[in-house]
Amino acid sequence: MKLPKFLLLVTFITCSCLLYVYQQTDIFRLAYIGQKRNAVFHDFLDKNAMLRYNINRNTSLVLIGNRISGYANFEMPDSYRVVKLVYPAEGLRIANQSRTLKLKNIATSLFGIKRQAEARTIDRP
What we know:
The protein has helices spanning 3-58, 61-71, 89-103, 106-111. The protein is an all-alpha fold. The longest helix has 56 residues, at 3-58. The two termini are 74 Å apart.
């Protein structure tokens, strides 16, 4: 075998081996990066679970009831009673008269304009 062919073969084999070693080290490096990201992700999931637990615990009805009863002498009644309020007839009549006066406005009678609220979206860039 001639020397130039031998050197070319050795160079090709050496480059192939270097490329293989580089690929293997890159695979391990990416695996370590993936493991670190996975560990950080699980830490965030644990923190999220703890925060959700704290929110649920702090907004529970028992805790809110304890806070209310701790600041004031708040007591729930033993029996519930429904009270019906009856408005006097004069109050209803006065409210109806003011409504009919508003409807007899000239603009509303001629053009049929009624007051109403309209919501419009704001176009933001």
